[in-house]
Amino acid sequence: MMIHSTLSGNKEPFQPIHKNRVNLFVCGPTVYDDSHIGHARTYIAFDVVARYLKYRGFSVFYLQNLTDVDDKIIQRASELGAEPASLARKFEKRYLEDMHNLGVTNVNFYARATEHIPEIISQIERLMEKGFAYETQTGVYFDESRFEDFGKLSHQTAEDLERHRIEPDPTKRNPGDFSLWKKREDKEEVTWDSPWGRGRPGWHIEDTAITETYFGPQYDIHGGAMDLIFPHHEAEIAQMEAASGRKPLVRCWMHTGFLNVKGEKMSKSLGNFVTIRDMLQRYDADSFRFFVLSAHYRSPIDFSEGALEQSRRSLERIRQLVKIIEEQLECSETPETASEALQSEVDIRLAEAKAKFLEFMDNDFNTPYALGAIFELVRDVNRRMNEKTISRKALGDAKNLLGEWEWILGISFSSKGPEPAQKPEDLIGSLIELLIEIRQKLRDKKDWQLADDIRNRMKELNIVLEDAKAGGGKYTIK
Ligand code: AMP
């Protein structure tokens, strides 16, 4: 099995530290708001990684942290007049619900930063003892200049690093030194006692304290989206390798590409986001997973209603086949067996399809190609059914193979039964959605006049349309 590692920049044969046991860590969210579908992209990608490793016989321990103390949480809580801890719990709960609704079910343990303060302090103490960290009036900092390998993950030279400046703080030795412990006296803030006075941990140290607690100083796979390569993951390497004296911290660094909107990263700060909750009101989780997996996890993926709709329709084709297979299996006219020649032809075809799927997944989790292998089989089985050259046994085998694939991808291929005849009110809803889609196409072409006309005419009909930044829009009937 080959996995691309950001550290080497190459695909490498995957070999866990302990035979067939895999320790997998993925950076979890900062819980100050609802997660958006960009976050979902990354967590679905790693859910499939965990599923596939399990399918391949590895025993996977999948750990995720929850950043429940952070500037953003404190700021949001003060804006809302809420307690930071209760705000963090609220959004943690909502995040876990979102993950459950998306079928992201393979994380074994979620570790809260605030429940690992002693481990964080112990790691900082070791860094101080070894001369990699120093204390100032404002906090404790990692001395980047003492760690020779700094920059190895993001492939940056000392000069490149010079350009990145974080936290201009005159008390630091080097501008790039990052915070391990923030001294805070303010009663409004969330603080803990430490050898350096009251304060709270820096962002990077929580992850290495958590992974050291559960995995030790070295483990197999660390994941996140590519925005975390620098400085976050670079800092993790520095902290843990300096504290333990052992390297590498991680055998394989995996980074996902962004979910973009019109070429720009979906993010809270740009305001171009769609929350997981909003998306799930309009689409089912399986269609969204299908959409995510239709791109390779390292490639960017551009979100649009049209692309999601396309995924829903593609998935429907597989579901349609499964439904027909089920009907054929029930039907007494379906032949039990085919001629030996036809049977062996189907056996070979199924074995080939399975081998292709595995070959693509073994090649750095190439899900778009794996989906292609599924559609090849779908076409083949459809053809054989039309020609009535497929036996009950072969249909059963095809169904089992599709069952294996749906487990790996976490997408249900089961037909949801015949679509109920549309009620008139649903039809109105569908027509409004259609108008919204057409308007979006006009807006994309900058035909503002016609787009505005449609909105005004809809308003005359008491349908009020609110454009969304990410495209499309919401409507209310007054
Ligand atoms: P955050 O809560 O912002 O730290 O993000 C949680 C995880 O989602 C991190 O791994 C981020 O890198 C990832 N992430 C954030 N935005 C996107 C996006 N637009 N596409 C893919 N992953 C993202």
What are the defining features of this structure?
478 residues; alpha/beta; Rossmann fold; Four Helix Bundle (Hemerythrin (Met), subunit A); 3 domains; 4-stranded antiparallel beta sheet; binds adenosine monophosphate
Brief sketch in words of this structure:
This protein is an alpha/beta fold. It has 15 helices and 16 strands.
How would you summarize the topology of this molecule?
Elements: E1 2-5, E2 10-13, E3 21-26, H1 37-55, E4 59-66, H2 71-80, H3 84-101, E5 109-112, H4 117-129, E6 133-135, E7 139-142, H5 158-163, E8 178-183, E9 199-201, H6 203-215, E10 219-225, H7 229-244, E11 250-256, E12 259-261, E13 264-265, H8 276-282, H9 285-293, E14 301-302, H10 305-330, H11 340-362, H12 367-386, H13 392-409, H14 424-444, H15 448-460, E15 463-467, E16 473-477
Parallel strand pairs: 3-4, 3-10, 4-5, 10-11, 12-14
Antiparallel strand pairs: 1-2, 6-7, 7-8, 8-9, 12-13, 15-16
Helix pairs in contact: 4-6, 4-7, 6-7, 9-10, 10-13, 11-12, 11-13, 14-15
This protein binds adenosine monophosphate.
